[in-house]
Amino acid sequence: MLNVESICRRAKKASRSLALVSRVKKDKALALLSDWLLVHQDEIVRENEIDIKNGTSSGLSPAMIDRLTLSQARIQSMADDLKNVIRLPDPVGEVLEEKDLENGLHIKKQRVPLGVLAVIYESRPNVTIDVASLALKSGNAVIMRGGKETIHSNQILVAGIHSALNAAGIDPEIVQFIGDPDRKLVEDLLTMYKYVDMLIPRGGAGLHQYCRERSTIPVITGGIGICHLFVDEGADQDRSLAVIRNAKIQRPTVCNALDTVLIHQLVAENFVTKLIDYLREDGVSFRLDEKAFKFLPDENSLDVKLAKEGDFDTEWLSLVLGIKIVDGIDEAIQHIFIHSTGHSDGILTQNEENAERFIAEVDSAAVYVNASTRFTDGSQLGLGAEVAISTQRLHARGPMALRELTIYKWVISGDYKIRK
Fold first, then answer.
1. 57 and 198 share one domain
2. Range of the domain at 119
């Protein structure tokens, strides 16, 4: 069995070497990794196909299989994201605040890496590349533990990461991978507070709860999205349909996909049937509250059901959409307050006052006005990639990219100054 403490100790030691690694070297390693992915994409796909076959045999859901899959198009996207990270400024050393004091001291707050990250994740092997690239660029070492369903995919990707680091002259020990699926190793990892500075679980609610309850390391949680769009009374309905469709079907198996549409009662009678007819062609099925259900001429449709208890608290991760009629913006905000996970919620409206009120009162990590929730993504928001999407308040919210993987230290300079 792997020795987790030894892995963490090596990561901690290697993290210190990153303090002297230049941006040029970091970017060189990322460029080499981008090239490596494209050169070895056939091998990556072959290893990934083994995981897909095993996952299908073990009963993984279609949503999980989709997250697991690495097509050549997705590998190209991973390579492109690495190039985006290269173009981003290196956050390490950035001065956040600087001033001279009357006592003669010069002080500044300077951005520094967090140190050692541990990331536990399920299903999505592209996370391996995202996490390693952002950790490197932000000057952090990282310990990754993927799920057993991605073991073959992750092993070949980690081999590519180590190859790129070696070729760039960077200690490959800064990226550690726990390749044994034994759950006992996760239990051990959660106690390594002497070596690990932040733990990021990426997976279902069970994994998040398990880490929060057992970890001695500070935990950043997120990535579970029950996402809403509210269609206001004065919304442009035709354009709203396009936004809702994109948010629901563009990639329904991910955390920023739309789960519930809230519709103002004054436009509901027309819009409910229009929305259902519009999305049926994409294979979407629906869960309607009683008010919305009454607007349907054919209540026996197989793809439309009356919402049952718990439906509006479900992250569907599939082509299922909840629809609820609300009295107005007050009830829409109240519904989101009760049912949202604080991930991504938006309003579709032409009313600027309602838009501003929605922004002020909806306390989600990403709040949208007239845009799809699918943009809650590090790459889409110009961050290159992300290690996670945080839905909490310490110390980052939303997509966690380079700056979110840093903290600061005080640098105080004097002319042999003493305190009186």
1. yes
2. 4-221+392-413
Confidence band for 221, pLDDT divided at 50, 70 and 90: confident
Are the beta carbons of 255 and 377 closer than 8 angstroms? no
The pTM for the full model equals 0.88
**Could you tell me which of 407, 356, 329, 348 has the C-alpha nearest to residue 111?**
407
- CA 212/CA 199 separation, integer angstroms: 10
Angle, helices 41-57 vs 23-39, to 10°: value is 70
| pLDDT reading at 298 higher than 70 | no
> Which CATH number belongs to the domain containing residue 364 in this structure?
3.40.309.10
Residue pair 317/253 in contact by the 8 Å Cβ criterion: yes
At 188, give phi and psi (nearest 5°).
-65, -45
With CA atoms as reference, report the closest residue to 219 among 203, 193, 201, 202: 201
Q: Each residue of 341-394: pLDDT tens digit?
A: 999 999 999 999 999 999 999 999 999 999 999 999 998 998 888 888 999 887
Residue 385 within a domain: no
Going by their DSSP bridges, the two strands 141-145 and 116-121 should be labelled as parallel
71 falls within a domain: yes
Give yes or no for a contact between 387 and 398, defined as CB atoms under 8 angstroms apart: no
Residue 333's nearest CA partner among 288, 364, 307, 373 is: 364
Structure-block tokens of residue 279: 């999305």
Do 100 and 156 fall into the same domain?
yes
Q: Read off the amino acid at residue 198.
A: M
207 and 251 together in one domain: no
Let me know whether 68 and 93 are in one domain: yes
Q: Total domain count for the chain?
A: 2
**Tokens representing residue 28 in the block:** 């060189």
Q: Which of 302, 303, 261 is nearest to 286 (CA)?
A: 303
- Distance between CA 323 and CA 139 in Å, rounded? 45
